[in-house]
Design goal:
about 35% helix, about 160 residues
């Protein structure tokens, strides 16, 4: 699978997903992309419509990519989460248009309490947006090792006459 090889070669593999949270169909959309060391993005899979019923998307992600450890794209989420934290926890001065106080340590503590897999934003209470980074887990590493072995090793080709 090219995305597993990309991870193994040091590129980033990102899953962008949208989940329609108020639909019992589990409707969503997915884009899987590879981002190389030059930050060039290549979409390798795009599912504009996917339906997973009442399953949690955290479970869906793990079942779609059992070979991967799945994490939020921390750098991407950071600014969204700073904004969310400030709106919920920091006093705001309407005259200056600025937050009066922001404690980075408290923010990091708040952030550490968030679920490991979470949406970075929600549109109109209807669509959760995710951007997740996939890395190879042990299953993925073993798969690539076996795939490499099968592709590069020479095997004897036996037929019925050789066995008799």
């Amino acid at each position: 699978m090219p995305w597993m090889d990309a991870i193994n070669n040091g590129d980033d593999v990102i899953l962008e997903a949208d989940e329609w949270v108020n639909k019992s169909s589990g409707r969503g959309s997915f884009i899987l992309k590879i981002i190389d060391s030059n930050q060039k993005e290549k979409i390798v899979i795009e599912w504009p419509y996917a339906y997973f019923g009442m399953q949690s998307y955290e479970d869906v992600f793990r079942r779609l990519f059992p070979w991967a450890d799945i994490h939020i794209d921390d750098d991407f989420y950071y600014d969204y989460e700073v904004d969310e934290y400030k709106k919920s926890n920091c006093p705001y001065d309407n005259e200056t248009g600025e937050y009066l106080y922001f404690d980075h340590e408290e923010f990091e503590e708040w952030r550490n309490e968030l679920p490991d897999i979470r949406a970075y934003s929600n549109s109109s209470g209807e669509v959760d947006h995710y951007r997740l980074k996939l890395t190879l887990n042990r299953i993925g590493e073993i798969f690539l090792e076996l795939d490499n072995f099968l592709e590069t090793e020479s095997f004897y080709n036996l037929n019925e006459n050789d066995i008799k």
